[in-house]
Amino acid sequence: MTQEIDLSKLPPPAPYDEARDKAQRSRLAKAWQGPPGWKIVSAVNNSFIGKWYLLTSFAFFVFAGILALMIRVQLAAPNNDLFGQQLYNQLFTLHGTAMMFLFAVPIFEAVAILVLPEILGARDLPFPRLSAFGYWCFLIGGVFVCGSILFGVAPDGGWFMYTPLSSNEEYSGLGADIWLLGLSFIEVSSIAAAVELIVGVLKCRPPGMRLNLMPLYCWYVLVVAGMILFAFPPLIAGDLLLEMERAFGWAFFDVDRGGDPLLWQHLFWIFGHPEVYIIFLPSIALIATMLPTFAGRPMVGHSWIVLSAIGVAFLSFGLWVHHMFTTGLPEISLGFFSAASEAVAVPTGIQIFCFIATMLVSKVRPSVPMLFAGGALAIFVFGGLTGVMVALVPFDWQAHDSYFVVAHLHYTLIGGMLFPLMAGVCYWYPFVTQKAMNARASRWAFWLMFGGFNLAFLPMHWTGIMGMPRRVWTYDLTDGWAVLNMVSTVGAFVFATGFAVLAINVLWPRGKAPFVARNLWNAGTMEWAAEVPGKPWGVRSIPYIHTRYPLWEQPGLVDGIDRGEWFLPDAAEGKRELIVTDILDARPLHVQRVGGPTFLTLGSAFCLGAVFILATYHLWALALAFGAGFVGFTLWWLWTGTSEIPERPHKDAGRGLTLPTYAQGNRSPGWWAVFITMTGDMTAFMGLVFSYFFYWTALPDFPPAASQLPAFGGLLAGLAALIAAWLMTVAARSLLGQGARRAAMALLVGSVPVAAAGLGGWAWAAWAVGLDPTSHSFDAMVWMLILWMGLHLIPNAIMQIYVAARIWADICNPEYRADLMNLTLFGHFLALTAIVIFALLAVFPLMMGAA
Amino acid sequence: MRNLTLLTVPLLAGCAGRHNWLSSAGAEADRVEGLFWVLLIGAAVIWSAVIGAAVYAQRRQVDPGLEHQARWFIVWGGAVIPTVLVCALLIWGLVILRDITPDKGDLTVRVDGERWWWRVTYDGPDGDVVTANEIRLPLDQTALFRLTSDDVIHSFWVPAIGGKMDMIPGRETTLALTPNKTGNWGGLCAEYCGGAHALMRFDTVVMEPDAFDAWLAAEAAPARVAPDDPGFAVFRDEGCGACHTIRGTDARGPVGPDLTHVGARARLGAGIYAMTADNMARWITDTHAMKPDADMPPYPDLSGARLEALVTFLLSLDHAE
Amino acid sequence: MRYESDKQPSRFGPPGYAPRVIDQGSVWIMVAAPTLWALHFVASYVVAAVWCARIGPSLTEPRWIIAGMAVVCVALIVWLATQAVRRYGGVFVIFEEITESSERGRDKFIGHVSLLLCILSGVAIAFTVIPGFVFGSC
Lengths: 851, 321, 138
Fold this sequence. Notes:
Largest sheet of chain C: none
Number of strands of chain C: 0
Radius of gyration of chain C: 20 Å
Keywords (chain C): Membrane, Transmembrane, Transmembrane helix
Low-confidence stretches of chain A: none
Low-confidence stretches of chain C: 1-24
Number of helices of chain A: 24
Strand content of chain A: under 5%
Shape of chain C: elongated
Number of helices of chain C: 3
Domain Cytochrome c (chain B): 226-318
Domain Cytochrome oxidase subunit II copper A binding (chain B): 104-218
Structural class of chain A: mainly alpha
Structural class of chain C: mainly alpha
Distance between the termini of chain C: 58 Å
CATH superfamily of the domain at 280-511 in chain A: Cytochrome c oxidase-like, subunit I domain
Subcellular location (chain B): Membrane
Distance between the termini of chain A: 58 Å
Oligomer: heterotrimer
CATH topology of the domain at 280-511 in chain A: Cytochrome C Oxidase, Chain A
InterPro entries (chain B): CcO_II, CcO_II-like_C, Copper_CuA, Cupredoxin, Cyt_c-like_dom, Cyt_c-like_dom_sf, Cyt_c_oxidase_su2
């Protein structure tokens, strides 16, 4: 297996040979070339997916921005009846929804997918087809949600969808279902991207890039993807509860049936507040990446920025109730969240001070990206300071749901996210297109945007102080808000003009314009090592990195890369290959083969999208048919594109480095992806557990008397069967390892009916005592937990049979059994879920009854 | 659609800014106002210092030897000083919160949020006194509001007097307000409640305590309705009593606002239109033009003498001796 | 500093053979202190919520429960901080970036960041205790 390699003492590269270089380049090009013509939609490489993701997110931004302008037009004058109540309510709901779910979060993923592999000197992310799948899900879901306004059925319950306004059919219609199902679908793609980015940062760094040498951008991506993993799942759990209430009348939020509308607010804001930092941190990361470039020196306080990113990530999970300060919770509870909301200002501020400290010891070259960064600083610091204000409960009782908060949140999001993003667009435009933007037009764009923004949003603080509440479509002249609103409207249009100038500048066709110089800004990070004009493979050979700013600190690096002197300079087998390294020190572990262009992910995403869209209209039979299509496409994709047995167990990666070509267990990125996905899944499950205990604190009859509890015997028998099924999978893994293929297959297939029997036992236990999910929140909660188990057993059963089939086909065998190891890992999480559900359904009510 | 500005301007000309937090019309608002000015000045100083530091950093000569100081700058400017400041603010904010949330008040007012109006109930000497969309409060007394909702979440807010509190189905929340300036202050629904959220308002009239007591007594009295009032006949024939209550008559509908003394209120439609005969007539016949989605069905067939009689009757339901 | 040898004796078997999460060289110490903050935060919230919903308006007992938990958590954080200093070589303020390409450099970096996170988490826990001493009842 792998030898201990001293990367700094590699044998010298073979002397340069032009013929060899040419041959290698043509083989690399063949392996990495995007598909021709219209087949380009089957591309999966990050450079394609990233660009599409970016453009799609910006398209949704423009859409949501147009909605915002319509809002501003409606509010420009008092007693204006231009759009009217119904449309206005849809406008602001969709504006918030699209900005948050279809722009702010996806744009992080878009930028990361586009530049992260390049910063890491990698040729792609570890699961390119998963990125493609996520992208198509995002596109389909986003178009579905946004398109609804053209048919007048857009959601109109606010982007926060508070129950009972959103749960009661009397108050809300199809729009609420479109919101719930459309966005759940998109959240799935966000989590897919998060998994990929985490594995990308941890396992796909270039050899030698230890944690202390990792660029700040990668730290931020790691932290933010981790936050997505813990923030989005509770919302998915909430969406599930809410949609079950809407579609089937399950009692979760209806007070008459033991539900509680505040539960939704908790689940929503446990997602919603971290989300603000999920949006903010990656954009600050852009500034942290470009500031050293223009300062011409490393960042001062690199480690303090890492501290600040991690600190913010944690503290941001302790803020959610500050959106609920006016819901009448006990003052001491508000106090905790006020405390965390104040505390988070400290690490947030540290980042800003690191930037200023860097500027103190250098001379920053004036440039368009730095202009946007400066604007971001001015706006964001202001928004942060009003944030400190609204974090104080008494102040918030006045400011909450007034235009003061509208102003505050736009200062933080536009200052903390949009302006840095624009800086990033200007900074990386030459990297992506290899052409230069028109700097003069960009400067115009900046000043229009900066001026327009402040003109629009600075007066809004005062509008709020004058008592204007949010989400009102009209007001009276005598309210005294007319002049301020008119000013805001004018500012909004100036701001939009500025953005339009920038957008035109970006989209301007520059086919004949000259290419920019390589490493145009003289940056120190690896993405600028790319050749001009660009090559499909990204980096000619994957170098050994032993500094934070390799292009500054490792002289001759670029030449060595170009001559193919480093690792994987060739694609001899015609396969797309990456180097997987270890988490701490980025020591090369193995060569990972990744998938190339395919239509399978497209089909898979299309079918899954159809399932969600059809479910919105309660077309269950069709939805089921497309569900089968989704499973079919996904299995086909997995079967043909993952865990292939390599043609030989090792290969020469260049410079005397011989690496395995297959990995399994916790050495393989796939295992990590399953582990990380299931961590997210457990977080969603924790959302359900939280709901259970929330009802317990809020309701005197939760859990109810013993006679209404699910039968203990049935629950215990069910648990026993589920655990038995899990043990059978575990046994199959070790038996296969010992070469007993038939026994392993039998156990895998045999565990499916055993698990089904276990689930049946639970269902019987609930059904026998007449638990009806539409009658009371306890009944609904019991059935929801059983349903949760069922929703996991279905994919589990499919994968059990899939792996058995792989064993039968000898693609999964004693030597190469990554599939079975990943499946077993999934099984571990399932067993844990089963035990917790049993504790909630059987043990906890008993304990409470005894007390 | 709501081309009524001309009608409302004269009525409210003197009331511009009646929703302003900085009106100093309540003890709670005063506490927040004091906090606000300190925060504002502090924020201005900090913002100027941070941006000033950034600008200064660019204007001075580069001195790489400053890296030592730059690092201490991060420690002190980024970490230590902000920690101390936010800690002090946190404690101050919590103390204010404690002070403005007393357990008891001088009087209790129950307000129930409806789509899209306010049901207001006072504890009168002889039981509940129910009214709607207009709250009267005695000067310098702490009113404890007990807030509920039967449909969706609303939020009760009189910015000039104090902060807001949500009204949540299945719960009762409380809010203390101590008005300290007489006048007519605006009240709003602050939590988006669907449909006509923008048109869910109320008046808050702060009165001298004696005047308040007289008002409450008058409000508690049943309506004076002449048995042969032609307007009341229309009211009865059209079935208005199925939804509305007029105490002292057989109209006991619990759905819509209590109309016992509707003529004594300054506004109709939940604080959005002046209580005039024209507005009332239009409200009855063309409700949704004045307030889209309102639960009240319009009566477009009412017209002429019958409509006039009904409007006259409703406006006569006041406190006049 | 920049071109220093990468060679360090490895005490951990073949490189990257398993995610070394427990022993020295673990990254988990970086998230340990903030996790303690999170646990203390959630526990405080739960204690207060359950107390106010089920037991009574007086907050005297929860106040001391929360403070007691804070003492325990801060003690654990102090222990973590000593680990970060002693075993990882972490320091509070660095005057030169830790860019050494070696296991020692990486450890020093992790120790340094962990130490900073310990301090931040300790302060955040102290913040959480404050409300309990301002409010006497629910």
